[in-house]
Structures are given as C-alpha cells and as structure tokens.
Amino acid sequence: MESVRTSRRSVMNTANDWRALYPFKSNEIAIGSQRLHYLDEGEGEPLLLLHGNPTWSFYWRNLVLGLRDRYRLIVPDHIGCGLSARPTTSEYPFRLQRRIEDIVELTERLDLKRITLAAHDWGGCIGMGAAAARPDRFARFILMNTGAFRGGRCPLRIRICRTPFIGRLGVQGFNLFARAALSMATARPQGLPAAVRQGLLAPYDSWQRRTAINEFVRDIPLSSNHPSYQALSGVETGLAQFRNHPVCLIWGMQDWCFTPWFLERFCQSFPQAEVHRFDDAGHYVMEDAYERIVPIVRRFLLSS
User: Fold this and answer.
1) For residues 262 and 138, what is the distance between their CA atoms, to the nearest angstrom?
2) DSSP H stretches of helix in 202-257
3) pLDDT per residue as tens digits for the range 240-273
C-alpha cells in the first residue's frame, strides 16, 4: 500500500483543489506483475464502475458518493490509468483482451456476485467482455456513452490521434487528447469547474504516465486485421446472453464520439432496456448531468 500512498501524494500535490472531490480510501491488488488501484466504498450489493479513456476512477466520484449508503462500489483504475501501475508497452500489452482479463480477475479475487456493471466509454466494452466471460457473476447493466460492438465509426479527430508519430506526440507528448476532452467531452456552456479539470488531468502529468491514453486510442479495432478485432467480436457476440437482464442506458446526446447511433445499437441488443436521453449532456455525461443521473440509477437498482 505504501506505493499507492506515495503515488497518490505525488498526484495530489500537483493540484490541491480537487482533493476534496475524491475523499476515498485507496486499495490495491496485484494483477500479474502489475498493481491495480481501486476504490471499495460502502456495503451491500456490488456495483462495478468502469471508466474509459482518458478518465480514471475520479470520473465516478459522484455516483460513489450518491450510492455508498446502500451499495458496495468497486471502482478500479485500469492498468496505466489513475493511481494504478504505469507500465511500459514492453511490460504490459495494453490490449482489449488483457483489459477484460484484468477485470475478470478482480471480480474473482474479490468474489463479487450479482454485480451491477456501470460503464462509460472503453469501460463498456471491457465490462461487457468480462460479463460475457463470467455471466454467472453479473446481474444488471448501466451503460453510458459507450460501445461494445464492431462498426468502424471513428471520428476524424480520433483518427488523427492514431496517426503514426504525430498522433503519439500529440496524445502522449503534449497530452492533447485529455486536454481537448475537458472542453469537447462536455456540453456545459460554462465548461467544467476548475477543480474537476484538475482532477481529470492529475494522474497524466508526464509522457510515461500518459502511455495508457495513447495505447487506448491505438487499440480501437477499426479493421479485421487489428490485434483486438477478435476480442471485440467476442464482446459483441456475448451481448445476446444478457438480452433479458435489467439494463439501463444513460446517454449524453451531444456526444460526438459515442453518438446516438451507438445508443440505438444498444437498444437493438437490449429492447427491454430503460433508456434516458440527456439532450443537454455530452460524452462526459456524469460530469454534465450527475445530479439527475444518481437518482435514476438508485431507482433502477431498487426496481430491478
């Protein structure tokens, strides 16, 4: 735990204003040779909250604060993200299948049962992959501005970030991906509060600490010859077994990345899903509409 505390102190010292927004105890578990940091807040039925790119467990803070009185919330930082280990590409594969295996191992090591998965961005694909691998452990799903199927829909601004050398220099060198998201991923007219902006960026303050952001971008499987294409195909195929499970779809309709097209694809996979569309929210839907989302999630959990 000392390594977690040291890492957390070094991150927090870079931005004093955001610490009050993240008043949680750190936990860690060894996944292979890597240290995975996670939050474990509250007691009761488990909710597994999975972030995407370029966020970390900080993204889920308001849902944790809003539900930990009744539920147990497990919120990991994917390897390379947040307060987890920061391996190089030679030390960790940074591929979808490995991400899925990490979450499967976490759920088994913590012996989580009747899990409610809440997932955003890459967290949806990773989480649904873990659920397909261990369907007996998952009971309900809350999906927000994410994807879990093939489709080849990738905005030009994301494709530019995948350009050899130039893309990596911008994403990993100048942190342009995470910085751009502070304005492009929100629909708030006034933008995100300063402390929230600091919190979202805090763990990603150097080239090495931004490796995972770049590798997530590179791991988008847009063609059948991509190393993660088969893993994504498996995730997509696995959706069918949860067709009759309770599902809640929460969407920021101003998202230019995971557009309403992705929402409609999920509605086809889960025709009985409860659907909430937020016309005034963007990709960071929890940042734009958490005051309305927390009560929605609580009602969904109580009624399903």
Assistant:
1) 22
2) 211-218, 229-238
3) 999 999 999 999 999 999 999 999 999 999 999 9
Residues 223-239 as b or e (16 or more Cβ within 10 Å = b): eeebebeebbebbbebb
Q: Which domains does the chain have, with CATH numbers?
A: 2-303 (3.40.50.1820)
* Amino acid identity at 22: Y
Question: Do the Cβ atoms of 207 and 173 come closer than 8 Å?
Answer: yes
Task: Give residues with Cβ within 8 angstroms of 176, minimum separation 6.
Answer: 161, 170
* DSSP assignments along 245-262, one per residue: S-EEEEEETT-SSS-HHH
Whether omega before 54 lies within 30 degrees of 0, making that bond cis, reads yes
pLDDT of residue 2: 42
DSSP, res 172: I
Q: Which residue has the tokens 């494709």?
A: 159
Confidence of residue 152 (pLDDT cuts 50, 70, 90): low
Query: What pLDDT, on a 0 to 100 scale, did the predictor assign at position 124?
Result: 98
Whole-Å CA distances, 224 to 214, 231, 261: 21, 11, 21
Q: Which parts of 12-164 are beta strand (E)? A: 27-31, 34-41, 46-50, 72-76, 115-121, 138-146
Q: Judging by DSSP bridges, how do beta strands 34-41 and 72-76 pair with one another?
A: antiparallel
| b/e map 99-135, b = 16+ CB within 10 Å | bbbbbbbbbeebebeebbbbbbbbbbbbbbbbbbbee
